[in-house]
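Per reviewer request, we include the raw input and output of the structure prediction for the construct analysed in the revised manuscript.
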Amino acid sequence: MSTTIVDPSRAGGRAYRFLRSIPSWVLWLLVVVWLTPTLGLLVNSFREKAVQQRQGWWNVLLGHMEGFTLANYRAVLADATGNVPTIRSGLASSLAIALPATIIPIGIAAFAAYAFAWIDFRGRQPLFIATVSLLAIPLQVALVPLLRLFNFGAHLTIPWLDKTITVFPNLGLAGTTNAVWLSHTAFGMPFAIFLLHNYISSLPRDLFEAARIDGADHFRIFWRLVLPLSVPVLAAFAIFQFLWTWNDYLVSNVLLRLVGQPDFQEFPTTLVIAGQASASFGASEHLLTAGAFVQSAIPLVVFFLLQRFFVRGLLAGSVKG
């Protein structure tokens, strides 16, 4: 059986030559097509409701500049009144969900990935395969069971003993941001372990052998050696997980909105923006454009701060040299 060894430099050279062969006008056309909806959203975010309904945003390109105002942004950033949440309260809830749902999986998955890659223990391969196989479980099938778990707990009834055992107590988490970030942490853990394991297992074995000769234990090797070398893949996962949790609507809608008496102040920005166009929150669809830009500001900042690690993290562990 023959094995073909692919030189990564040659493969990268072919990709580079292919990209160089694409005419620049094609790339600029893609940029224009991609940014056109965003430009329309930006223009409408500064226009009054009546102007938004009367004419399309492209009329600005023809010189029609009437109706421009900052009132939309002042409205979405105003304090909440009664049971009508605003983007201002939604931003705090989104941060309360996205930050722990990003940091906690990174911390736990980094330890687990190092253990799967470099610690020899019984059942390592089957346990790793079982962990990665959780990626195949659809997110949607777990939401209603999670809602019942957070709302009522889990109890096991044994008929012949006439006894009920509490497997998971009712912690009263339903309708709170804690339920949402706990769910995102659980859903993101398999992918985090898989991605970090691919990178950590590709690190040169000589580094670990040299560290062990110097008397370093596993924790010192992980803290002083593995973590500094794993910054690109950690940043790549942080971008993925933060963007996913920040922009999530489904999990938040099930765990926050489908409870008996939902607390509107717990709603993240995605639920707030969706609610601004519904009858329950009032006829304020003209605020959707301004709300969308405010909601997207923090993910853009996170991406541009970490984007230099993004490609390196995506390719982590794909080539071993």
